[in-house]
Specification:
The complex is a heterodimer. Chain A is an alpha+beta fold. Chain A is built from 13 helices and 12 strands. Chain A is globular and about 65 Å long. In chain B, helix 14 packs across helix 15. Chain B is of the alpha+beta class. In chain B, strand 25 and strand 26 form a beta hairpin. The chains are: A alpha+beta, B alpha+beta. Bound molecules: flavin-adenine dinucleotide. The site of flavin-adenine dinucleotide (FAD) has 30 residues of chain A, from strand 2, helix 2, helix 6 and helix 7. Chain B: It comes from Teichococcus aerophilus.
């Protein structure tokens, strides 16, 4: 039987070094970690349970920001009035994620660090080649079934999609990740695969995400998350959009925040679309044209080509909804 | 009992046949108290893990067991090289095996996921870990990933399915209106929530198996033959089933190897398949393709159907999914040509999934009828009514009952079909386009003999026993209701014991035949027990009712003299008075099914005596009409159902609440088939990638709209003893077509390959 050591950390100072050891893994809600262990993708020799660390499960809001502790459960965050007020996109992204059971267990920190759903990555016994799992081993997905694979941010080495919803909303609204005493924009937290797809997050061994911070902004307060998928619930996004909008007094777009999920190797901020909209009047034509920029630079495959059209339409829809919300 | 006898209780809330009591096993299940086969505690258990092939074709040259055998707790490692053969068993259809030996672990590999080794250890975790330590040396061979790869070819003809009625080619050529289209369904998997598995224990030469089973006697026979022991030496126990949908009717290779390990070890062994293994240890519905050409005159009378079907099977087994099962009998059509081919590929042998045959057949036919209606400019419902056949166009026999018109009328009325604007895309709700679609479905009445024991107990209660199984469909409840009707007892006084092969026998719970045949057997046994009780009351010297009347009735647990010659006598008091602790009757319905006592074993352990729907004077089938409303987000391509109305004729419903549940369950499964389900094959490896419940999409609650089901059936005295027809599989038949037709109505797009997804509609 494959044994592993279990540590229940009680302080951050204690948890860090334990987690830094080779073959050690941090355990929060466990919904990703246990899943990957069952698939044989991870084989930790030591598990560091951080769920008993004090002070990491708070939700606080003030004039400057919304602070979400890394150990806040997805279910708690999505229901919290402060979250709903400060950033509806985050609350909606969480509510549309996974299942009620998983949301009750899973933490926000763990959620950011969930791994790709690439079927080739998740089945090492059948598909030994995976650069993300085993650097230099190749990519079994290339040339395979790739309708869920990324069109944006891909590399020769890896085309696996980042599957999470929360991170897409966080990236859109310019959230900041707190790692102990270090801070980092959410956008920088997720690493493009490039030639090193096994390096997925900008974390050093033993570093623990302690909180997510969403700076207060009008665009965040007026934000939404749309998630498109075949099944009405309990499915990862085929395409998703997080959108935030602030209109100036003259009706022009003062600030707009957009990010895509389900189509890229990392949560994909739409800077080009944002730039095309900022300062403009949100006319239907402007919205449509700007949305068309969403998939700029995409590398489609035969079985995911339809997302080239879907993603811009979903961006357009999200913007329309935010504008309608204004009229109402 | 004739159907008329019981009509007074039909539809009321009583406990007898036709009443609507909830499932008597429901509370236990909700509370987690119902112990399923694999929940049974067995002392001294060892745990097994199945190891499966990672290549699609070739040979296992050798398996290095050294590391696995040395791992902690490991008791036994079975591989092709060290596993003695079993005896080959005859088939479920009753044919002798082609070879004398059966090797549950074969060195020749024919599909990914084929079992190649079994590791048994003290704990599940130890076995799981040791299983990863086996080193398998393969010699790979070329393979066919599925029937779309060019090398798979056109496959072999299936002559028994050929139909040539009239001259379809000529009639098509002269038809005013013609449509031609090709329809496809992917591999669909049964994936019951309770995975397959078993616990096997040997006591000398006697084998006890705790294993979920839709057919205890058939599986017990199979195990007996494999191990060269007598049928009576096998005891199979399956108190409940956590879903099977056709996949738990047969003894399977993993059962053979687990039972063999138990025998070799001299210890009970438990094996439960992992979720991915439930995609390869047994087959689901075969992938299918159908080419349909329909020809009609300008008024919409069907003239001809030309039907060509292809389906997958495996390289080493033939599974036939009869693709013209509905095509041949739904409509009045003088000319029909139908052929089917079967294409062997490197997959596990496909098998039965809810309504094998009728389901894909109706999908293609009912979509084609919709296409024809549009080609004609007619309402799809009107087109169907125009082509309603007065008798079975295939066999020429009269229908025992076909209340299809009533189903169309009731369904259309409740749905509001008359308000439909036929133009595609014309009905809207804000940015959403609404689709209203309809389709019909059918499922045959299959009949087999049953056997049951009914025992009147000293306290006046009644026991019913049979080896038939309750798959969650409600067998416990309707069999209790059957006895309750005969004795006029409340349900609480009837105890039903099922799911044990040592009980009176029963054939397969498949083909939607169980309810009809088992209510018949229980009714017969209950009446026999009642007759004996009345005989004792009238004739036993110690009976208080001796000589008071010529006959007695039984109601509310009491014996009643017809004209009040004596006060009603509780059954319990009679038994006390005459010194009996029970009165029981064991009855079978072999004779009713044209069988002799010597056919008994064959009748219950094979399907060789199962009667076709046209065996006899009539052609017998259940019928349904589905009406579906959905909304398509045009820009985004997402489909969401809004409501479904299904009207059906399944004859008398033994318990309308449970029958409605079965129809709804079929509809829910049909929603999955239409919009979500399908095995995704990586053709480079012949591997199904979505072999788990996160990636193989089944409908969630959020996918299911309000469903209304309406019974328009009347008792059909030809179909079964009490007048019911099959219910379990009916609801799924035609549902996917109704959805596909609604999608067309919403969008103007014909999607002919299931499932219909975002990628098709955006
Ligand atoms: C069937 C299924 C469906 C799902 N559907 C969705 C969906 O639709 N949308 C979606 O967004 N997600 C979905 N998920 C993913 C789910 O949301 C994540 O599994 C969950 O959020 C992970 O949180 P956790 O606390 O359980 O993480 P864990 O499993 O405990 O940890 C996950 C990873 O993060 C690391 N980790 C955890 N906390 C920290 C920390 N504070 N600092 C540093 N490292 C840490 C762990 O070492 C591990 O590598 C689904 C999951 C499943 C199994």
């Amino acid at each position: 039987m494959r044994d592993f050591a279990y540590h229940r950390a009680t302080t951050l100072e204690q948890a860090g070094p334990l987690a830094a050891r080779a073959e050690s893994a941090i355990l929060a809600g466990g919904t990703t970690l246990l899943d990957l262990a069952k698939c044989d993708v991870v084989r930790p020799a030591e598990v560091v349970d951080i769920t008993h660390l004090p002070g990491l499960a708070d939700i606080r809001a003030d004039a400057e920001s919304l602070h979400l502790g890394a150990l806040v459960r997805m279910a708690a965050a999505m229901r919290h009035v402060a979250v709903r007020a400060a950033c509806p996109a985050v609350a909606q992204a969480l509510a549309l994620s996974a299942s009620a059971q998983i949301r009750n267990m899973a933490t926000l920190g763990g959620n950011l660090l969930q791994r790709t759903r690439c079927a080739y990555y998740r089945d090492p016994a059948s598909f030994p080649a995976c650069n993300r799992r085993t650097p230099g081993s190749g990519c079994a997905a290339a040339g395979g079934v790739t309708h869920h694979h990324a069109l944006l941010g891909t590399s020769e080495a890896c085309i696996a999609t980042y599957p999470g919803d929360l991170a897409v909303a966080l990236v859109a609204v310019g959230a900041v990740i707190e790692i102990g005493t270090r801070w980092m924009p959410a956008e920088d937290f997720f690493l493009l695969p490039g030639e090193t797809p096994h390096r997925e997050f900008a974390l050093e061994p033993g570093e623990i995400v302690t909180a997510l911070c969403i700076p207060a902004s009008a665009a965040s307060r007026r934000s939404a998350y749309l998630k498109l998928r075949d099944r009405a619930s309990y499915e990862f996004a085929s395409v998703s959009v997080a959108a935030g909008l602030e209109l100036a007094a003259d009706g022009t777009i003062a600030d707009v925040r957009l990010a895509l999920g389900g189509v890229a190797t990392i949560p994909w901020r739409l800077h080009a679309v944002e730039a095309a909209l900022t300062g403009r009047h949100p006319t239907p034509a402007t919205l449509r044209e700007a949305s068309l920029l969403a998939m700029q630079g995409a590398t489609p495959r035969p079985d995911n080509r339809h997302k080239l059209d879907l993603a811009p339409r979903l961006v357009h829809r999200a913007l329309e909804q935010l504008l309608q919300g204004d009229a109402a | 009992m004739s159907p008329l006898d019981i009509s007074p209780q039909r539809g009321d809330a009583g406990d007898g046949i036709g009443g609507r009591p909830p499932r008597i096993d429901g509370l236990a299940k909700i509370r987690g108290e119902a112990a399923y086969a694999m929940d049974q505690p067995v002392e001294g258990l060892a745990h097994a893990v199945l190891v499966t092939a990672t290549i699609a074709a070739g040979w296992v040259r050798g398996i290095d067991r050294t590391a696995a055998e040395a791992a902690p707790g490991v008791l036994l490692v079975l591989t092709p090289g060290n596993t003695p053969p079993l005896h080959a068993a005859s088939t479920w259809t009753g044919e002798a095996p082609p070879t004398s030996e059966y090797r549950p672990l074969e060195p020749e590999i024919r599909h990914v996921g084929q079992q190649i080794a079994l590791v048994v250890a003290e704990s599940l975790e130890q076995a799981t870990e040791a299983a990863t330590l086996l080193r398998v040396d393969y010699e790979a061979a070329p393979f066919l990933a599925d029937f779309t790869v060019p090398d798979a070819g056109e496959g072999q003809d299936l002559p028994p399915l050929t139909i040539e009625r009239g001259d379809a080619d000529t009639a098509l050529a002269s038809a005013d209106i013609r449509i031609s289209a090709e329809y496809g369904t992917p591999r669909e998997y049964n994936v019951p929530i309770e995975p397959h598995g078993l616990t096997a224990r040997w006591d000398g030469d006697a084998l006890t198996l705790w294993e979920p089973s839709q057919w205890l006697d058939g599986m017990a026979r199979n195990y007996a033959e494999w191990f060269g022991i007598g049928f009576e030496q096998v005891r199979l126990i399956s108190p409940y089933i956590g879903g099977g949908f056709g996949s738990k009717a047969l003894a399977l290779p993993h059962g053979a190897i687990a039972a063999q390990a138990a025998r070799m070890l001299g210890r009970p062994v438990k094996l439960v398949l992992t979720r991915p293994q439930t995609f390869t240890a047994f087959g689901g519905r075969a992938a299918t393709r159908q080419l349909l050409e329909l020809g009609a005159d300008a008024d919409g009378h069907l003239l001809a159907i030309r039907h060509r079907g292809w389906q997958e099977t495996s390289r080493n087994g033939l599974w036939v999914e009869p693709l013209n099962a509905a095509t041949a009998l739904m409509y009045e059509v003088p000319h029909l040509s139908s052929r089917q081919r079967v294409v062997p590929v490197n997959t596990v042998t496909p098998s039965a999934k809810r309504a094998p045959g009728e389901n894909p057949s109706a999908f293609a036919l009912e979509c084609a009828m919709d296409e024809l209606a549009y080609a004609l400019g007619q309402d799809p419902l009107a087109l169907r009514l125009r082509n309603e056949p007065g008798r079975d166009p295939h066999s020429g026999k009269l229908w025992s009952s076909r209340r299809m018109r009533e189903a169309y009328a009731a369904g259309a009325d409740s749905f509001g079909w008359a308000r439909r604007n036929p133009t595609p895309g014309a009905m809207r709700d804000g940015p959403l386009r609404l689709g209203w679609g309809m389709a019909a479905g059918t499922y045959p009445v299959r009949r087999s003999a049953g056997e049951a024991m009914v025992r009147i107990l000293a306290d006046g209660g009644v026991e019913v026993a049979s080896s038939t199984s309750d798959m969650g469909t409600g067998a416990y409840t309707i069999l209790a209701q059957t006895a309750a009707s005969v004795f006029g007892l409340p349900l609480a006084r009837v105890r039903v014991t099922l799911g044990d092969s040592t009980l009176p026998r029963a054939p397969v719970s498949g083909g939607s035949q169980m309810a009809g045949l088992m209510t018949g057997a229980v009714d017969k046994a209950a009446r026999a027990a009642r007759e004996e009780l009345i005989g004792l009351a009238l004739n036993d010297p110690r009976s208080p009712l001796r000589g008071v009347a010529n006959t007695l009735a039984v109601a509310e647990g009491r014996l009643i003299a017809p004209r009040g010659e004596a006060p009603p006598l509780p059954i319990a008091e009679l038994l006390t008075a005459i010194g009996r602790d029970r009165v029981e009757a064991l009855r079978d319905t072999l004779a009713e099914n044209g069988l002799k006592p010597e056919d008994r074993y064959r009748a219950f352990t094979t399907v060789s005596t199962m009667r076709a729907p046209t065996d006899g004077e009539y052609s017998m089938h259940s019928w349904c009409a589905h009406f579906v409303e959905l909304a398509v987000d045009e820009a985004l391509g997402s489909v969401r159902l809004r409501r479904i109305v299904t009207a059906f004729d399944a004859g008398l419903l033994y318990n309308p609440r449970l029958a409605e549940s079965q129809i709804k369950g079929g509809i829910v499964m049909g929603i999955g088939q239409a919009l979500l389900e399908g095995g995704i094959v990586d053709r480079r490896h012949a591997r199904v990638l979505n072999n788990n419940l996160a990636d193989y999409l089944l409908p969630t609650h959020a996918d299911i709209p309000p469903i209304e089901v309406i019974s328009v059936g009347e008792p059909d005295p030809h179909a079964s003893a009490l007048g019911g027809k099959g219910v379990g599989e009916l609801g799924i038949v035609g549902l996917a077509a109704a959805i596909a037709n609604a999608v067309f109505h919403a969008t103007g797009k014909r999607v002919r390959d299931l499932p219909i997804t975002l990628a098709d509609l955006c």
